[in-house]
Amino acid sequence: MDLGLNGKTALVTGGSRGLGRQAALTLAQEGANVAICGRTQDTLDSTVQELSEKGVKAIGVVADVSNADDIAPLHQRVVEDIGPVDILVNNAGGARSREDITAVALEDYKATFELNLFGGFQLMQLVIPHMQQQKWGRIINIASIWGREWGGNISYMSAKAALIGATKHAALSLAKDGVLVNSIAPGSIAHPQGSWERFQNDNTPEFVEDFIAHNLPMGKFGWPEPLGDLVAFLASERSGLITGACIVIDGGQSHSMI
Ligand SMILES: NC(=O)c1ccc[n+]([C@@H]2O[C@H](COP(=O)([O-])OP(=O)(O)OC[C@H]3O[C@@H](n4cnc5c(N)ncnc54)[C@H](OP(=O)(O)O)[C@@H]3O)[C@@H](O)[C@H]2O)c1
Asked: Angle, to 10 degrees, between the axis of helix 119-134 and the axis of helix 154-174?
């Protein structure tokens, strides 16, 4: 299947490690030029090296998506070095607090929204004019199954639910413009230095086995490659009728029927 990604410009936030790295590598494999951002120069450099080896243009930009002041310079740098953004993957995210309603600090609750929602929201606003003008664009927001149904902590669940909402609303606003906006809801996907690797290292084998038995129908954690393939498909010509969707990729982990 030709995805038609050759020569497109993609920006993947949090693209130096984990799911973002896999998304960036798969987009590059399909011929897209790829910019990634993260907070750490070293890991950006090594992933940019891997991306360049696929024969595409690749850059890494130090930027913290939870810092509003980093967003416009990030976008500007990508436009100048590679070109206007055709494909935006808002991937960077996580939790700033694991407390429940009785204990969470308002600052941490807000900070989780800054990390998962506001930076990505700013980036959407920056890339949309070019996408509208050329009547083609793809925005993919990485949410979580815990933005669709109960799970995780209150900060993360609330922020991911808001991201899914913003995705749906933007999708309908842009549907006539050839700009498709979708979210992806991963389940528990393990990768080097990721939270599920830490979970497995920090707990006893019995505890981990029990978690898997009760939560992961496939009997194992997820792995990043299928997520990269899904991002590439949603970014492609071939996904033309899909917009406003939230696509679950979780090996059957979540319980919602919709
Ligand atoms: N893995 C899962 O099981 C899972 C499940 C559901 C949803 N998700 C979502 O999928 C996305 C990626 O997950 P992941 O497991 O790959 O996460 P991760 O391991 O925490 O992601 C690491 C990547 O994000 C970058 N990053 C972290 N904070 C950043 C910030 N403030 N600004 C810019 N870049 C930042 C990291 O680089 P630096 O550290 O150098 O900044 C690195 O490139 C997240 O939105 C997460 O919520 C993951």
From this structure: 10
Radius of gyration of the chain (CA): 18
Give the closest residue to 82 by CA, choosing from 114, 51, 46, 57.
57
Q: List pLDDT tens digits, range 66-112.
A: 999 999 999 999 999 999 999 999 999 999 999 999 999 999 999 99
User: Which among 109, 118, 146, 156 is annotated as catalytic?
Assistant: 156
Distance, CA of 235 to CA of 139 (rounded, Å) = 7
Q: Cα(251)–Cα(253) distance, rounded to whole angstroms?
A: 6
Give residues with Cβ within 8 angstroms of 249, minimum separation 6. 184, 185, 186, 187, 222, 226, 227, 230
> How many degrees, rounded to 5, is the angle at CA 139 between CA 138 and CA 145?
130
Q: Residue 5: phi, psi to the nearest 5?
A: -95, -5
Q: Does the pLDDT of residue 258 top 90, yes or no?
A: no
Number of H helices, E strands in the chain: 9, 7
Domains of the chain: 9-189+224-248 (3.40.50.720)
What is this structure's pTM? 0.98
State how beta strands 246-249 and 58-62 pair: unpaired
User: CA 34 → CA 9, 71, 242, distances in Å?
Assistant: 6, 17, 23
Query: Which residues are paired to 179 by β-bridges?
Result: 137
Neighbours of 142 (CB within 10 A): 25
Mutate to test the pocket of ligand 1, among 39, 212, 231, 253 (most ligand atoms within 8 A of CB): 39
CB-side neighbour CA atoms (13 Å) of 52: 10
- As a whole-number percent, the residues of the chain with pLDDT over 90 amount to 99
Q: Please say if 156 is a catalytic residue.
A: yes
